[in-house]
Amino acid sequence: MKAKDDFLNRGTFKMQNMDQVLFWKGMWLRNKPLSEVYPTLFNIVRRIDDIVSNVFGVVPPNVCFRRGLVNVN
Asked: How many Å apart are CA 43 and CA 23, to the nearest integer?
């Protein structure tokens, strides 16, 4: 959950064409793909080839994981 807060608190992003940038594999944050910045999240994401416009086209961002991010006791 901290990764989500870190990511969303970075400010704003402006891209020319969000239909051509891969969310997890594109080099658009810290000059590295998100798959390298957040490898633990990338290992459980459902759609590894999703594009930025699919993720940020709705609120909250549309990122699906294979399991929950919070442990339930």
From this structure: 14
Q: Which domain holds residue 38?
A: 2-56
In contact, 28 and 51? CB cutoff 8 Å: no
Length of the chain, in residues: 73
pTM across the whole model: 0.64
Residue 21, domain member (yes or no): yes
In a domain, 67, yes or no: no
Cis peptide leading into 60, omega within 30 of 0? Answer: yes
Summarize pLDDT for 17-37 with one digit per residue, the tens.
Answer: 666 788 899 887 678 898 998
- Whether 21 and 51 have beta carbons less than 8 Å apart is answered as yes
Counting the structural domains of the chain, the total is 1
C-beta neighbour count of 29 within 10 angstroms: 15
